[in-house]
Amino acid sequence: MRRISRITVAGAATASLALALSACGGTSTSSGSSESKEGKGLAIAYDVGGKGDQSFNDAAFAGLEKAKKEFGYETADVEPTDGETDADKEQRLVSLAKQGYNPIVGVGYAYASAVKGAAEKFPDTTFGIVDDATVEAKNVADLVFSEEQASYLAGVAAAKSTKTDVVGFVGGVDIPLIHKFRAGFEQGVKDTDPKVKVISQFLTQTAEEGGFSSPDKGKSAAEGQIEKKADVVYAAAGLSGQGVIEAAAANKVWAIGVDSDQYQQEALAKYKDSILTSAMKDVAKAVYNLAKSVEDGKPATGIVKGDLKTGEVSLSNSNPKFADDAELQKAIETAKEKIISGEIKVKSS
Question: Which CATH architecture does the domain made up of 12-145+283-306 adopt?
Answer without folding.
Answer: 3-Layer(aba) Sandwich (3.40)
